[in-house]
Specification:
alpha+beta; eight-stranded antiparallel beta sheet; 3 helices
């Protein structure tokens, strides 16, 4: 139970990290360098807490995988011409993903509005959309996936 509480605290700290000037961890339209810097900080924070972390940095992709017992976290960022056009965060922790989703929805920088139960569109940037998916994963874990992308 202590490890589970520790993981929840670490995840929450990532999403409210003082390293990012924004409230929500939205990196769409950021440069590869900006995303790399933020993901590197997350990676160092996870490692300092003895969490297993694997990161992969390529010119068009950044991937962070973290594991604590059976609660993986996956963060994927895709780039075109040095600009992030797609990000996906997969959490196998429903309370964590609910908190993250609420944080993103409250972010006044984007003002996401529901189109339906799963899809949201930014009122400030109509070419940025967000989707929430819930999928049954392996070992009866439920994966909540939040994807944000630029549609132009």
């Amino acid at each position: 139970m202590k490890n589970f509480t520790y993981l929840l605290t670490a995840l929450w700290m990532i999403f409210l990290s003082a390293c990012s000037p924004r409230i929500a961890p939205i990196y769409v339209d950021d440069s590869w360098r900006e995303v790399h810097e933020n993901i590197s900080k997350i990676e160092k924070d996870f490692k300092s807490k003895n969490l297993k972390v694997h990161t992969h940095y390529q010119k068009d992709t950044i991937l962070l995988l973290s594991y604590q017992q059976s609660l993986p976290v996956e963060m994927l960022y895709l780039f075109k011409q040095d600009s992030c056009y797609y990000q996906e965060i997969n959490l196998f922790c429903e309370p964590c993903s609910d908190k993250l989703m609420n944080t993103i929805l409250k972010d006044k920088n984007y003002k996401f509005k529901a189109v339906d139960k799963e899809n949201y569109i930014s009122q400030k940037f109509p070419d940025i959309i967000m989707r929430l998916n819930t999928v049954a994963g392996k070992d009866d874990l439920v994966c909540n996936s939040i994807s944000i992308r630029k549609i132009k």
